[in-house]
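Researcher: Next sequence.
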Amino acid sequence: MTRLVDIRLGRGTQLVLGALPIVALLFVYLLASEARHLENPADKVLPTFEAMAQAIRGFTTDRDPSTDRVILVADTLASLYRLAIGLAIATVSALVLGLLLGVMPLARAVLGPTVAVIAVIPPVAVLPILFIVLGLDEASKIALIAIGIAPFMTRDLTNFVATLPVEQSVKAQTLGANSWQLAIRVALPQLMPRLIEALRLSMGPAWVFLIASEAVASDVGLGYRIFLVRRYFAMDIILPYVAWISLLAIAADALLLFVSRRGFPWAHGAGR
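Model: Next structure:
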């Protein structure tokens, strides 16, 4: 008798099975939307697919007055710019601090408690402080993303480096390696796939911080647009925007996974 844990699926079967819940949700939404519009043709809570298609044509052809670009393009470019800069700052900071704190117990003793304290502060709570200190321009939005995810990534990378087999450090020092060489030649190569994994896990919170900052103070961006049309109950625009954000997040996650598998195949095992 074949156990459930021993069942192995092909790539095509996995895709079909993975798509089934999504198709089911869309079908349920279709039924619910049609039912609500039979009772109230002006219902805005669950817009029909035809209404969303019309809204999509609008924000993919109309131009944003402030940028003279198509609205969706302007919002996407603005949000991706903020997200990319914030992620880059957080990634570099986490890599340097994680490597330093993981390799050097002295640095971990001095800076570890500070990183732990910063990590437990709700990032959105410091958003007003960032607006006061950095202003309402791009810097505060980028800073919120970086501050929001860098502490988590730093702690994760620090724990990973600190738990590397001590034999590796002993052997390297026996061969004459100093602290710098231990960090760069021994810890860093093993840390890179973990860094990408930490970045993948941080993408969700990073999008949350981006949307939150754009909702409060912005004149262009995906989060700004969603909260702007929310005033008019324009669910026919909000839902496609949420779907678009999800597609961007999925694409970013797939790209990071591709880079990790191509760059560090040894970290993924033979069957993954």
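Model: The chain has ten helices and no strands. The mean pLDDT is 90.
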